Amino acid sequence: MYRVVKRRQLASAPCIVLLEVEAPAVAAKVEPGQFVIVRMDEQSERIPLTVMDFDREKGTITIVIQDVGYSSAMINSMEEGSYFLDFVGPLGVPSEIENHGTVVCIGGGLGVAPVYPIARALKEAGNKLISVIGARSADILILEEEMAAISDELVIATDDGSKGIKGFVTNGLEQILAQGTKIDAIWAIGPVVMMRSVANFTRPLGIKTIVSMNPIMVDGTGMCGACRLTVGDETKFACVDGPEFDGHLVDFDLAMKRLSFYKDEEERAKISKDCDCGKGAQ
Amino acid sequence: MALKVPRHEMPCQDPKERAHNFNEVALGYASETAIEEAQRCLQCKNPKCVQGCPVNISIPEFIQKITEEDFEGAAAIIKQSSSLPAVCGRVCPQESQCEAKCILGIKGESVAIGRLERFVADYEISKGCKIPEVAPPSGKKVAIIGAGPAGLACAGDLAKAGHKVTIFEALHVAGGVLMYGIPEFRLPKDIVQNEICNLEPMGVEILVNQVVGKVTSVHELLQNGYDAVFIGTGAGLPNFLGIPGENLNGVYSANEFLTRTNLMKGYRFPEYKTPVKVGKKVVVFGAGNVAMDAARTALRLGAEEVSIVYRRSRAEMPARHEELEHAEEEGVKFQLLTNPVSIQGDEKGAVKSLTCLRYELGEPDASGRRSPVPIPGSEFDIEVDTVVVAIGQGPNPLVTQSTEGLELNKWGNIVVNEETLETSIPGVFAGGDIVTGAATVILAMGAGKKAAAGINAYLKNKG
Ligand SMILES: Cc1cc2nc3c(=O)[nH]c(=O)nc-3n(C[C@H](O)[C@H](O)[C@H](O)COP(=O)(O)OP(=O)(O)OC[C@H]3O[C@@H](n4cnc5c(N)ncnc54)[C@H](O)[C@@H]3O)c2cc1C
Ligand SMILES: Cc1cc2nc3c(=O)[nH]c(=O)nc-3n(C[C@H](O)[C@H](O)[C@H](O)COP(=O)(O)OP(=O)(O)OC[C@H]3O[C@@H](n4cnc5c(N)ncnc54)[C@H](O)[C@@H]3O)c2cc1C
Ligand code: SF4
Ligand code: SF4
Ligand code: FES
């Protein structure tokens, strides 16, 4: 059993929660870019979540979850001292951390959480780190302080202009390029539409762009093929070949369609339990 | 007189009813039936049946005990050679193994060895299994990777020899394909767990949620105090055909379809939260046990029409006889000598139809088998909303690729010494589907036992 040692609510509409969980074996091995699969109890789905932070000494893993449906709402309502039944990881291939030169790390919405450890590691590897984080509006922008603390430069974009630039993260990226900055590599993590627009924007510019895909998964070990994506001309399994891929090669439209496969069933699962998220510690 | 008594039928749930529930199809012999069936055995001096069994169970001996109504004695005899009798009695392809060689089968019907084995094992379970005796601690530690039939059998024998055994399993339960692949209606999960729960009192530690190759590695286990390692990670990499449309919504690998249903209990959605979606018209590619399981599962999940599409003819279908018959009785349709060419989707990316090509049997090839050849211009479309691809599994590379110095063959299976099952790395052994490619439960179990013997010898020499 894997105990939740800390809970912090990062936003309330949508509900985004940070949980620090005891999982020493995972914490000993995890690298930025990897993920875990969790199960709350016997009836639960296996839910993939990116590792947002880890503490090898304390033996903990930090995850950030956004409420999008039944399982994520249940996880978000977990209190300090409660337990996950299963917590598997680290899964997936770690990010390619090396000195690329100048890197831009883009996190959209919840995507700021998974991009955070990658950005930090890239900074530690000697890169000049420019970060772009965005959200629909200021009140659901997450991890701003954490990102500011590790970045040489931080650009904020909100759809409604309530903080930073009014617009999307791609507008932030445009602004950086307009200043004449030469970018050597980009990590872009967020909703699939966001990753697609970043990739479309950088493709003609020839800037290496890594995205982190989040298809529906079951086992996370390459056994079932649920997580398959088309990348270039090939079929890849995101759980073992990814989750990071060359954004210029990913078939985003297919990925979006595959994500919507269980829409009806998700609705059915939802009505069987009301979300009581939003309670608990700040 | 024995010859005149016909083989006793297996009582089964009515096909019409069972096609809509997940309860076990075959109900098992009653004691009287088992005794009568056991009496059919001629107690051959040179029993051919034993040669047909991959682990050489002393078949006439255990059958004799049944006639004496000593069911526990019968179980003890089987347990000398098999650690999973309740499983193998249910899922072994008996008709091509023990029963194929039974002398009675030449002129009439063979003894129902598998059914008797199942009867004995179920009897033992109902009485509460006895924990096997364990030798005094040897002071040696062995790590086992994968809790499928191979790993479990290996663990049991090593524990008996007094070694401290730890199993590392990637999923959240032990059992391998027995839990995630083979459906409840053919192999109840309680039966599987019952066979596994004997291991813990013997001192075997089962650690679930441990993906070796990620959280630890073979070399790390050796460095961390394990004296030997057994790799039994199975054939868990689904093959796809590589035809257009295979990534559309509604196209599943059999592994995904069955894992959602069995391991995650999707058939009890929404009580269990993992959905499994099946449309009205389902097509399954392939004709092995996996394909039959997928087809029959689809029926039970509410599909109106389920067809198997297979490139060869009926004679070549690799599934167990019983599964084929059961599938037919339940209403699964067969499109033989037919091969899919492409899958078409609608604007939402969901499967809409399937284009297939008809085949005919050509001249016999070198192996004497008539191989199928496509008939030009015979394309036709089938309307369909779910496709399940069940055309075999390859070796999962997570462990093999992360283990330096491990010799693999060209398909990615681990190369072993045939006698000891030792790999190219001293102290590291392997067996089951990861060595042979997708095979059977009994072969995997047999390999686990053989490797345990190899490991015992290795640990003795090591001192
Ligand atoms: C490698 C990976 C890393 C991830 N990391 C995080 C993370 O750090 N934090 C986080 O909050 N979420 C993360 N996700 C997404 C998370 O797993 C899903 O949000 C979750 O499974 C949804 O479950 P649910 O029952 O709450 O929602 P459901 O009711 O199942 O679905 C609600 C909506 O979410 C979408 N959805 C379903 N499954 C997924 C999925 N696997 N990924 C994305 N959307 C999905 C559906 O399209 C649906 O519209 C990650 C996914 C992957 C594959
Ligand atoms: C649907 C289906 C139906 C079948 N029907 C029959 C039948 O009727 N009769 C029959 O005899 N055979 C049948 N088989 C075949 C039979 O189940 C297999 O041959 C047998 O299970 C192989 O055993 P194994 O121990 O080698 O591997 P598996 O049963 O595959 O077990 C391997 C285990 O290793 C674990 N593992 C994998 N990678 C790692 C890792 N990196 N770290 C830790 N653990 C890992 C897996 O999660 C799994 O639990 C069927 C197979 C399928 C898929
Ligand atoms: S283990 Fe299988 S092959 Fe051997 S006797 Fe039993 S059913 Fe027959
Ligand atoms: S071959 Fe048939 S009849 Fe002879 S001992 Fe075996 S089961 Fe009995
Ligand atoms: S989640 Fe099953 S193969 Fe990736």
From TrEMBL, chain A:
**GO BP annotations, alphabetical order:** pyrimidine nucleotide biosynthetic process
Q: Which PROSITE patterns does this UniProt record tie to the protein? A: FAD_FR
The enzyme class is oxidoreductase
Give the top-rank taxon of the lineage listed in the UniProt record for this protein.
Answer: Bacteria
Q: Where along this sequence does the record place binding of [2Fe-2S] cluster?
A: 224, 227, 239
Identify the SUPFAM superfamilies for this entry.
Answer: Ferredoxin reductase-like, C-terminal NADP-linked domain, Riboflavin synthase domain-like
What this protein is called in its record is: 2-polyprenylphenol hydroxylase-like oxidoreductase
Automatic annotation (TrEMBL), chain B:
- Key words of the record: Oxidoreductase
- Documented EC number(s): 1.8.1.-
- One family from Pfam that matches here is Fer4_20
| Record flagged with keyword Plastid | no
Q: Does the keyword Oxidoreductase apply?
A: yes
Q: FAD/NAD(P)-binding domain location, by residue? A: 140-448
According to the entry, every stretch annotated as the Dihydroprymidine dehydrogenase domain falls at 18-127
One GO MF annotation is: oxidoreductase activity
First-level EC class: oxidoreductase
Q: Which NCBIfam families match?
A: gltA
Q: What is this protein called?
A: NADPH-dependent glutamate synthase, homotetrameric
